[in-house]
Structure prediction request, 528 residues.
Amino acid sequence: MDNPLKSQPYVPINGDDYDNSSLAQRVAEQLRNLIMEGTLAPDSQLPNEPDLSTFLRVSRSTVRSGLTILEQAGFIQRRWGVGTFISKNPPTYNNLNINSGVTQLIRSSGAEPGFVEFLISARPASEHIAGRLSLEPGDEVVALERVRTANDRRVVFSLDYIPKALFRDQGAEIPLTEVENYLVEHQSMYTFFRERLGMEIHHGIARIRPLAAEAYMAEKLAIPYGSSILNIEQVDIGNDGEPLALSDEYYVADAFTFYSYRSN
Amino acid sequence: MDNPLKSQPYVPINGDDYDNSSLAQRVAEQLRNLIMEGTLAPDSQLPNEPDLSTFLRVSRSTVRSGLTILEQAGFIQRRWGVGTFISKNPPTYNNLNINSGVTQLIRSSGAEPGFVEFLISARPASEHIAGRLSLEPGDEVVALERVRTANDRRVVFSLDYIPKALFRDQGAEIPLTEVENYLVEHQSMYTFFRERLGMEIHHGIARIRPLAAEAYMAEKLAIPYGSSILNIEQVDIGNDGEPLALSDEYYVADAFTFYSYRSN
DNA sequence: TTGATGGAGATGTCAGACATCTATCGTCGG
DNA sequence: CCGACGATAGATGTCTGACATCTCCATCAA
Prediction:
């Protein structure tokens, strides 16, 4: 067999790190990674479901459940009586259906992510921010202000707001300096949530708007006044449905191209 | 029972009009419509799967398959051992994950859709258009140019390109005047595809870009020069994976707000 | 040459059983 | 009185095996 799956080492999907998600979700995640890494080529055919079942050591119904997830997300296409195929243009990290962070987005474009003008502070939430995060106005939030760079070019200006009440480890408050140090090293807020706070982001709801750069934004992003900007304001939701973070991101128009898979 | 589903008349999902899609997809579509219409309220709990199974007259596995589709699309949320719930903020027609047309988008916002400056013509495809539609440069396409209005306000400038070879009914060419008459009456390209050409659009892949209005666009949309515009260039794909249409739409910035559900 | 036909192989659907998780409520001990 | 614990009901998750249906393709007959 020249099937890519056959040459992959067997990865146990019943590991200890995944206790929170279902088997089917893990199957989907595993196959999705193989697609996004390019191991499974676009337009190629997957093994049939019984073979996938034995390979992944789960039942056929679980395989089918995972495949349904991938199909709905646009990664694969199933043709009754024929087979299951990787999509011709499967989603990538610049797809709005996938909740990837700026760091991953930059890295997947082949550039080196970085940042300048990093600011972190605690402040009372404005009415707008409190509304998005289901807080009371005045509740404290931790605010991050960053200018993100790709190969040292300024491409994104991002504002992140996280309820201060979340920064706790067994009751003890986590100092902002620790958060700062973590972000300087890892750059990703998402991994901090998972590894340090033990919280999983389930999904995000993003609002997309076109903007023209006013003076402040033009200076931050080093672009001419009036340049086009894509604004994505996103609320990240946890497993229990509660808002975990609000991120307000401003993308230089020609730095990235965003796509969306729209199902009928 | 005060369950909304119980008071719904039974809708046979094995009808003749749906021969092309699977049972699970029809289940998902039916429940999705109930959610988007507001019959099933946000945050409310669905009946359990065995009850849904008997109500919809399909097996529990088919119900589960349909629910998986809805879950992945952000309409519902399942909690193991607890139940299935309508999402707090389920997707609406202004969601980029859903392939709704401009007409439906305007109507769902509570406004009356219309258009001015309607143009239809056949012309050879440019290199760009041919590439998107998997044609050879020079192949004929039907081009639609429309300024769409919401309550008589100009909100979208849209360009649609469809391979001329698709406009056939049992071998006979469909005259452009008929297409024109249909669009004047129904305004929707999607229904024309389904009802007149017998073709189903399976999904679309959209590219989202922020723009500043240059002179031509500013005139068409009656907005100041340099105003922000959201450009969505979308390729609609049929059930067999072939491109059916290319639509290039320019949205006045403050006319609509687009959202996207981003799953992790 | 062409149309019908049948088989192989794939996904789709069904049925029933069991596994596992969650919330709740009672019981028991402090 | 109150908290910890366990039983239990009820929900979703997983497994198994069977059958249905669709597609493609090779074969065969007109």
